[in-house]
Amino acid sequence: MVPEQDVLTISTIWSQLARRAEQEKTLHLADWFASDPDRFARFSLEDAGLLADFSKQRMSDEIRDLLVKLADERQLRHWTEALFGGAEVNCTEGRPAKHWCLREPADRAPMVHEQLDAMEDMVNRILKGHWRGVMGDAITDVVNVGVGGSDLGPLMAAFALQSCLPPQGLSRPRLHFASSMDGSQVSQILQELNPRTTLFLVSSKSFTTVDTLHNATTARQWLGRGLGLDCDDASLLRCHFIGISANPERMSEWGIMPDNQLLFWDWVGGRYSLWSAIGMPIALTVGMDGFRDMLAGAHEMDHHCRTRPWENNIPVMLALVDVWNINFLGINARAVLPYDGRLKHLPAYLEQLEMESNGKSVARSGEPVEYGTCPVIWGEVGPNAQHAFFQLLHQGTQPIACEFLMTARRYTEAQHFDAVCELEAQHSLSNANCLAQSRLLALGERALDPEVALPSYKRYHGNQPSTTLVLEELSPRVLGALLAMYEHKVFVQAVIWGINPFDQWGVEMGKVIATGMLEVLADPESASGLDASSLALARHIAKRQK
Ligand code: F6P
Prior knowledge:
The protein is an alpha/beta fold. The chain folds into 3 domains: about 10-95 and about 310-495, 3-Layer(aba) Sandwich (Rossmann fold); about 110-285, Rossmann fold, CATH 3.40.50; about 505-545. It has 20 helices and 11 strands. Helix 1 (about 10-25) runs antiparallel to helix 4, helix 6 runs antiparallel to helix 12 (about 280-305) and helix 7 (about 150-160) packs across helix 12. The longest helix has 28 residues, at about 280-305. The chain starts with 11 loop residues before the first helix and ends with a helix. The mean pLDDT is about 95. The chain binds 6-O-phosphono-beta-D-fructofuranose. Catalyzes the reversible isomerization of glucose-6-phosphate to fructose-6-phosphate.
């Protein structure tokens, strides 16, 4: 068993950090850089194809050292070993969190590799055109039906890796993602598809999520109608549905054929599941070799996280910087800003990974926490965000931490033979903007000529801290390392805050109440004990539906 933690705020290191924060409030990042031109060398780390620059964070060596001591005091070493040792770190659900095991080599995780091999067989049959629809056609379109972790991870990574060359000699199917329960996505997707050549992946850890089951049922009915009466339900299920879940019984009950089932396990949290067969859309994009490269990159980051001293450890430093910003500088929002459009879905993926994991207010001990935990996280492709919410970052009233992501290498001749020069110029333009924005946010108007006097409405205060992450290139391996880095960062923060990042009880209550609301919507007058607002809204809707 993992021992209980002491109360965080009575730690002497916590008090020392609070005192440092008071002094820090009188300083400006422009002064940090003016007095310390070597900051970058001391506040940047590199490994596994990633460079992390923390030098634009409002922090000194002394603050960093105190944060590292805080990590020790919170027994980070012990907890890291508990995670990687398979202890029950998910205390409210009584299970370990072994997503890292999904990227272990075959000799250490045979069960995992058995499923990977089964997945490989299916992926190759689809990519080679051997998987046939019920009328004998090759598959041209694959629809991933899932939500939360069964959607955001595969969507984000498959989209990010689309520019990688397809597996040699194979043709990728077009990928589609249907997640929202209102049917708006699935209806739009189905309008454009041919039922004879469409395959559905029903992805759900629990296989009980209503959003996914309703979308899957709509798809099943669409196939039945589209393929005509000649086709029986069993053939349709065998040729057009693959199920991916930790619940084989529920998959079978729904109708997924045993040979079409891919499994993962209870000890993989939904938002940590893209490394399992839930990642099938990624494998359909880069082939199984590419998918295994992504696992290898993540494994490299697991090793980094487990073995590097905290001050040289990228996920640990990312976590500690956030703790400093949130708990000591009072910065309760973070913008994720990729300057490479292929990472367009990364903010949404991180919103779930971080906010569903660490959006908690009760400690492992069961006591309420007395300090802030996960901040509000949102984001957008950086160049587009510049024309949307950057005004608030530059001249608004909120302190906001930013996370910039750039890729060093981008286009290759093989990918874009004709336009490669122009596209390279666009890549440089985007990276230049990324550097410009982080510089301006940090230094404010002192990034410009100090002699120029500006009217007040043109002034930039600056002092908004940021971290910049540079990816060597957006390959499966580096993406794997990046995502594992974020997973470990979330875990480290949870250890500092003494919370469980692996449950999501807050989401569960909403599901229960929604079931009751269906009855209210059907007949508002039969509802009892409902609040006045909900009842009036239900009546309003019912009246307009007549
Ligand atoms: O949002 C709650 C949640 O349980 C997530 O943690 C999970 O990723 C999502 O629902 C989908 O769950 P499932 O994969 O079981 O359908």
